[in-house]
Amino acid sequence: MDIGLIDYFANSGKSFLHRSPAIHKIILVVFVLASVVVTNDLILLLSIYLVLTALVILTRLPFFKIISIAAYPAIFGVLFAAASWNGSWIRGGIIVLKALSAALAMVLLIVTTPYPSVFTAINPFLPRIVVEGLFLTYRSLFILLELMGNLIRALRVRGGLSPRGYIKNITNFSSGIGLLLVRGFDLSEKLYGVMKIRGYSGKMAEGEKKGFSQKDFIPVVIGILILVLSVVLWFENDFNRYHVFVLIVSVLFVVIAASYVYFNRDRGVSWKS
Amino acid sequence: MSHMHIPDGVLPLWLVFAGWIITFGILSFCIMRVKNVKLEQKLPLIGIVSALMIVGMTLEIVPIAYHVNLSVIAGIVLGPSLAFIAVFIVELIIAMFGHGGITVVGLNSLIVGAEAALGFYLFRVFWGVVSDGRLSAGLSSALAAVFSLILSSSLMIGIVYMSQASPGRILHKDEQSSDEKMLSQGLFERHEKHLVLDKKIDIERFAKTVFFLGIFGWMLESVITGFVIGYVFRVRPDLILSKVT
């Protein structure tokens, strides 16, 4: 998990998805997840994955990096498919595509939305303590990751981590985590003090105040289309004969997205603001 | 070991919803229980411990490809209620990074939350009641970690068993033509229904596999928990002996 990089992508991008309100992208994710849950159709799942891939292309973020981040659950999907193997490759493919599609939808959300916006958007659905906890956890993560990096570097330099000394490694590593815990507590106390000075009164996340443009609704429209298709296929078996066309449309979407990005590219890195 | 990396859309819906409902029930209970605690002071603490758990989960220990949960440490340091809240936060964040499905956050919170709460109570039992202070904090926490990991892994096996036994697994789809079957082969299609019914996971074999492989993970996590709590107890004993929340 490259949390720092994900945060950088979310804050530096300038695509229409980056500009879309967080709640619209969350609606897209919810609809994709609902589709993934109700669909057991390989072609439709492949189509959903391709549509999400096209959206990744349109974000102009490093494509393979995003795909690789979202491919992590596929490992467990493969394991799960192997564990419940009944001789059908298609069944295995369905499980892996379910994992890939759901993860890509989530990753698409977090690489195009800064975390305070995500937490603000889910604020009404969760208890206050959880939302505030989410915010503080995310904030603390970067500090701890840096501390952890320094700790591991220090352990290596001082011979605390060696290739074959597993017991010694575990002992030193565990003490390192203990050290992080203690320093983390000190940090939390300092953080609390700073927050109090800056007027913290138990509420931190502020609502987004921004007008909507037509482009902002693109994620919602795509989400609705995906969900409607999935539900129709779920209820109406006769519709199955047309799902190849859905696949063709999604492939076309990828081609159009790739062509659009290719012919409208700027010089140098084009996704940064 | 007890953390489920099951993708979205694989577990039956009733189980997923049950997981969320029970998790929200426990979450509400925990929030009520800590109502009298000064939350503004505890929130940064929850944030730090949750962040530490996430950092622990991102560090893969070579060569056994295992990541620690640190949930027992969270339980001992935060107390059962705050630890459950921290576990829910951790599960939500790691699901956002694709580390397990978002729909299984409820079930994962139950499993890891149970691990944290059991870790706390078992630690108190080993340290106070059983050993009457003769065991060190490190050893007590290591023992608490072993037992809570065994119990949470059993809970995970139970959930996997329930997912197989569900009548909701046998779903829909009445008629399909042969070419449609080639292109669209749902998980629980008509011609596979009996296979699904007959091909339930052999829970005994599954449990044996989990417990056999789990031994290494439990040992490792308990050793780490023991050293961490031992270190914290030496440096900041007030963190271990704070008021139960």
Main sheet makeup of chain A: none
Shape of chain B: globular
Structural class determined from secondary elements of chain A? mainly alpha
Overall shape of chain A = globular
Termini of chain A, distance in Å? 24 Å
What fold name goes in the CATH topology slot of chain B? Answer: Arp2/3 complex 21 kDa subunit ARPC3
The chain pair with the largest interface is: A-B, 83 and 85 residues
Total number of domains of chain A: 2
Fold and architecture overview:
The complex is a heterodimer of chains A (about 270) and B (about 240). With about 270 residues, chain A is mainly alpha-helical. Chain A is about 75% helix and about 0% strand. Chain A has 12 helices and no strands. Chain A has helices at about 5-10, 15-20, 20-40, 40-60, 65-70, 70-85, 90-110, 115-120, 130-155, 165-195, 220-235, 245-265. Chain B has one domain (about 15-165, about 185-240): Arp2/3 complex 21 kDa subunit ARPC3, CATH 1.10.1760. Chain B contains 10 helices and 2 strands, in the order ααββαααααααα. In chain B, α3 (about 70-80) packs across α5 (about 105-130). Mean pLDDT of chain B is about 75; it is low at about 165-200. At the A-B interface, α3, α4, α6, α7 and α9 of A face α1, α2, α4 and α9 of B.
